[in-house]
Amino acid sequence: MEQLLHYCWKHKLFPLQTLKTTDGQSVEVIDTGLHNRHAGPDFFNAKLKINGTLWVGNVEIHIKASDWYLHGHHKDHAYDNVILHVASIIDAVVTTAAGRLLPQLPLTIPPEVKAHYEELLTIDEYPPCYKVIPQLSRLTVHSWTSVLQTERLEQKTAAIAERVRRCNDDWETAYFITLARNFGFSVNGDVFEQWAFNIPLRATDHHRDDLFQIEALFLGQAGLLDLQMIPERYQQDALTEGYFTRLYHEYSYLQHKFTLQPIDASRWKFLRLRPQNFPHIRIVQLANLYYHKKAGLRQLIECDTIDEIRKLLDTNVTPYWETHFTFGSTTCKTEKNLSPKTQDLLIINTVVPVLFAYGRAHGKEALCDRAFDILENIKPENNYIVRMWEMCGLIVTCAGDSQALIQLKREYCDKRDCLRCRFGYEYLKKV
Hints:
Radius of gyration: 29 Å
Helix content: 40-55%
Number of helices: 19
Distance between the termini: 21 Å
Largest sheet: 7 strands, mixed
Structural class: alpha+beta
Number of strands: 9
Strand content: 5-15%
């Protein structure tokens, strides 16, 4: 509840009566200060008038005044610049480490704010603020979704920067790893990233003119050329067909040549996956992109339009996989290229954040602007999160909107962090 008291102070959700300290001094809040979420006083550089005298300094807030001593602030010189102590229950006088007696302001959470906050935390309907959303102005919605979109892009940028660091500042390799991760989508994303880190791309470059060797190395490093990874009922067919055996022997040669070690193949998930999303198919599609030199960052940067990016990401599989989803299990012949929807997801989750991260790291603002332009000119994702917000009355017109709403659900709604959400703020102060 102390967090809610912080919120009331920050947004000046005070009772209507004149604010007074415990010793009768009037308090006028000019500026509540900068909210500090780290060690030290709760609000920095607040501006207050106490009995007509202007004070500039820090404010500390507790539910009970005695918490000042419980938290050890009376021994901490970091709190010497506190000019006001705010508490719901004044059960003690408080002094700083320097021995100064602090004025204290009794402040309670308005009953309606407390009731609305409890609704947000306990309401069954999802999202809990759904009642207020239809009443929000377009400006409020647009300004908040713009912040959320940037926030989500910043998170992805941080993940890409970490991959670049692990790759010793090799942006080409980091791009390939990011692309591979998103070929696995949410189910196999982590395993694909581990697999991509395990591919020696600089060594593989020596065999880039041979698609069969690339496929063998890619599948082998995924641990999928282990006969035990094939269901027993298909093992004999896989051996009879011969393709598995050829790949196995080719990988054995490359494994010895480059001293390779495959990942643990048991990490791959197949349950409830559509066959076209099986790791075998996605890895072979990546091998095809790599072979045709379409999995490089340089080629991506040269693309000026979304259509050029889609063409760059266009890939297929080798003939064997036109009739297979796994080794030994034959299906009807189909072309297994990337659907437009899949391409759009790769653009949203790989191309956009990589362009933004690379542009920021190298001072190329044009690439950052291109990333935002792509989000504004590509269709929104169609998933349960987006559909949920649409049912609440939010209009979703582009991928930038859908990315913002995904960020909203995962980083605010799922964590019940309504006090940092602008929709939550509107709900708390509603009459």
